[in-house]
Amino acid sequence: MLLTVDHEVGHQMTVYMVNDTLSALDDIVSIEICDFSGNVLYEAKCPVRVEANSVMQITEISEEALNGRPANEVVLHVHSESAYSRAPTCKSRSIRTTSEIQCSDNFFDMMPNTTIRIKVKHLSGHAIPFESLRVSTV
């Protein structure tokens, strides 16, 4: 499954879902547009049924949903339980550690103004050298 968004400045944003499996999919696609401070400008939930081996247009969103902001000043987050999202959405973060440290998650997407809690443990039970942890943006 793949979610993708098509958008040209001055035109609507169109959300599509691609189902490349051999069976139909019932899902709910969530769409959220936020400013960089995390204020929600637009949100919608779209129930969908996408037939096997097909592409379906989920919805069209007018640029009016941006509340007068240029598209490069907002974050578009499109997701569902079943699909991988290919949209200009949010910052991807990763955590690099030494081989002795284990993180509950080492690659994740973050929306503006959100917090993610990561559990970190040393495989040998030693104290965590937090100064060695590095968070990067992809």
UniProtKB/TrEMBL annotation:
Name assigned to this protein: Mannosidase Ig/CBM-like domain-containing protein
Write down the Pfam families for this protein, in alphabetical order. Mannosidase_ig
Task: State the organism of origin.
Answer: Cohnella soli
The lineage's top-level taxon is: Bacteria
InterPro entries linked = Beta-gal/glucu_dom_sf (IPR036156), Ig-like_fold (IPR013783), Mannosidase_ig (IPR041447)
Mannosidase Ig/CBM-like domain segment(s) = 12-82
